[in-house]
Amino acid sequence: MGDVIASIALRTPGRRMKRLTAYFDSGSPYTFISEAAANRIGEPWELPEPLRFHGLGGGKFFSRHAIHLTIILKGYPCYHTAYVISEGVIKEDILIGHDFMQNFNIGLDIRRRKIKIDVSSLKRAQLIRSVAAGQ
């Protein structure tokens, strides 16, 4: 387990590219985005009921909204859903959890404080997602 902070390019459908500060946390099972960052890049939708989470410093917090994201890594779009959380739960704009890292085979080089991206895995993910979308 470990964590790395990096700047990432991100957009939602129909929106411009934005750069956000991302906290890659292999210990988090989910991806979270601050309410302010979510509102800057798109339109979060309301969840059927609030979801309660535990962790992030031992605290408890809720998400009442989620948002579809397009995170750009090495020029490839990586589609993912993040839970929108209140300001102050995380320091960075977005916390990238294990769910995203596993889907796109993202590793963390803890010693060098960098993310490890396997371009062949990103290409493979594009093919799978294109077939699933009926393209």
Kindly estimate the percentage of residues that lie in beta strands according to DSSP: over 45%
Q: What count of domains describes the coordinates?
A: 1
CATH H level, superfamily name: Acid Proteases
As residue ranges, the low-confidence spans are 130-135
Provide the spatial order of strands within the biggest beta sheet: 1-2-7-3-6-5
Shape: globular
| Total number of strands | 9
Count of helical segments?
3
Q: What would you call the structural class?
A: alpha+beta
CATH classification class: Mainly Beta
Tell me the CATH topology: Cathepsin D, subunit A, domain 1
Q: What is the helical fraction, as a range of percent?
A: 10-25%
Helix-strand string: EEEHEEEEHEEH
Biggest β-sheet: count, sense, barrel?
6 strands, mixed, barrel
Mean pLDDT: 86
Task: Assign the CATH architecture.
Answer: Beta Barrel
| Gyration radius, in Å | 15 Å
CA(first)-CA(last) distance: 36 Å
Q: Could you please describe the fold and organization of this structure?
A:
The chain is of the alpha+beta class and 135 residues long. It has one domain (3-132): Cathepsin D, subunit A, domain 1, CATH 2.40.70. The chain has three helices and nine strands; from the N terminus they run βββαββββαββα. It has helices at residues 35-41, 98-103, 119-132; strands at residues 3-11, 18-25, 32-34, 45-55, 59-73, 76-85, 94-96, 106-109, 114-117. Strands 1-2-7-3-6-5 form a six-stranded mixed beta barrel. The chain starts with a strand and ends with a helix. Mean pLDDT is 86; it is low at 130-135.
Provide a brief overview of the structure.
With 135 residues, this protein is α+β, with helices and mostly antiparallel strands.
